[in-house]
Design brief:
The structure holds two protein chains of two kinds.
Chain A (H helix, E strand, L loop, with lengths): L2 H11 L4 E2 L8 E4 L4 H10 L7 E10 L4 E9 L6 E9 L4 E3 L8 H12 L2 E3 L32
Parallel strand pairs in A: 2-5, 6-7
Antiparallel strand pairs in A: 1-2, 3-4, 4-5
Chain B lengths: L4 E2 L11 E2 L2 H10 L11 H11 L22 E5 L7 H10 L5 E5 L1 H5 L22 E3 L6 H18 L22 H15 L1 E3 L6 E3 L5
Parallel strand pairs in B: 3-4, 4-5
Antiparallel strand pairs in B: 1-2, 6-7
Helix pairs in contact in B: 1-5, 2-5
The chains are: A alpha/beta, B alpha/beta.
């Protein structure tokens, strides 16, 4: 589907979706966290989109805005089109619904983001650290993370 | 080659003989059959593969082309790449599994000092000297294959000159390159610090403004 037509169909189907215009090179929408599960299910199941693959899920620490921006890169193996999904959550209470029931690979991605950013995923079947030791304190990719090992500029 | 004396017997060309010491022969054999371990953790490993695998830079000229996949059969550990906290115990175990005498070449900035990950890294080791004893450091990011060869030749020189059967594993450390004429190490340090203060500016993510790198250090 063409970019404009795709975005139009998505916004018609998911009224809470906001189209992102700037700084993106592919169709991109922003969603409130509460609407993430139903939107994910729609994007996956609707035959017009068929976003059956979650290529990547990562997070950005927007410390100046007090938000974590969660990025979901979706791809359709049927139509060969992409979609970027952006969800912003509060930095103090970073709880979002898990999309692992829609795309099972999200279990791994969400564990990684939990490990490095400390974002908590609701309804995740097994939310443990992925890369770091189990007794690691804190989440090192947060911009305000400091520990004794780290050398800093101050 | 360790040949100290060649003395043909007078009038008989068939009875030539060589005199040398056992130490020299053993060191000569060791230095010309270094078997490296297949070990690489990042981009330096690509350059090492260029040196060991590609035809252009033929590492077998120095007898070090038999790259082994197990530490039991290797005696040269080329640490090529960044070592992080979780990799350090594995590196140490690999080193301890190697048969003695064993040698270590550390290539690249990361293995020397942490390289670009010195600041704001929660996991990168700032140099591997604490984990394994290093014989030769090869600077570069990553070093060219020629630099790695220079490191191997330096190691060969160390093995030939310093190591004996009575003192296995003994090498003179650390290896320092020759200084340019009319210059002391303190002058070089001073000049480098001045250059850093003038040029290197990095952004501190917390403050949001530009903080001058290395000032006051």
């Amino acid at each position: 589907m063409e970019k404009a037509a795709l975005l139009e169909t998505i916004t018609a189907l998911i009224p809470n979706a906001k189209v992102i215009e700037e700084g993106v090179d592919r169709p991109a929408i922003e969603l409130p966290p509460a609407h993430l599960p139903e939107a994910a299910k729609l994007l996956h199941d609707t035959d017009d989109f068929a976003f059956d693959m979650l290529c990547a899920h990562t997070a950005i620490d927007r410390i100046d805005d007090g938000k974590f921006e969660l990025i979901y890169q979706l791809y359709s193996t049927k139509f060969h089109h992409y979609l970027m999904l952006s969800v912003k959550v509060d930095r103090e209470h970073p709880v979002v619904p898990s999309v692992s029931s829609v795309w099972r690979i999200a279990q791994w991605h969400e564990r990684e983001v939990y490990d490095l950013f400390g974002v908590l995923y609701d309804n995740h079947p097994d939310l443990r650290r992925l890369f770091l030791e189990d007794d690691w304190q804190g989440h090192p990719l947060r911009k305000d993370y400091r520990d004794d090992f780290m050398l800093t500029m101050e | 080659m360790g040949i100290e004396q060649t003395a043909p017997a007078p009038g008989d060309s068939n009875s030539n003989f060589l005199l040398t010491t056992l130490d020299d022969v053993v060191s000569w054999a060791r230095k010309n059959s270094l078997w490296p371990l297949t070990f690489g953790t990042s981009c330096c490993a690509i350059e090492m593969m260029m040196a060991t695998g590609a035809s252009r830079h033929d590492i077998s000229r120095f007898g070090a082309e038999v790259v082994r996949a197990t530490p039991r059969q290797a005696d040269l550990l080329i640490v090529a790449g960044t070592i992080v906290k979780r990799m350090a115990p594995v590196l140490r175990r690999l080193y301890e599994q190697m048969a003695e005498p064993r040698y270590v070449i550390a290539t690249g900035s990361c293995t020397i000092s942490g390289g670009p990950f010195i600041y704001h890294s929660y996991t990168t080791l700032r140099g591997i000297s604490d984990v394994v004893p290093v014989d030769v450091f090869v600077p570069g990011c990553p070093p060219r294959p020629e630099a790695l060869f220079y490191g191997i030749l330096t190691l060969q020189k160390l093995i030939q000159e310093e190591e004996t059967i009575g003192k296995p594993g003994y090498r003179r450390k650390p290896v320092t390159a020759a200084l340019p004429p009319n210059m002391s190490i303190d002058e070089i340090k001073e000049e480098m610090a001045k250059l850093l203060e003038q040029q290197a500016i990095v952004k501190d993510p917390l403050k949001g403004d530009s903080t001058e790198f290395m000032r006051g250090r």
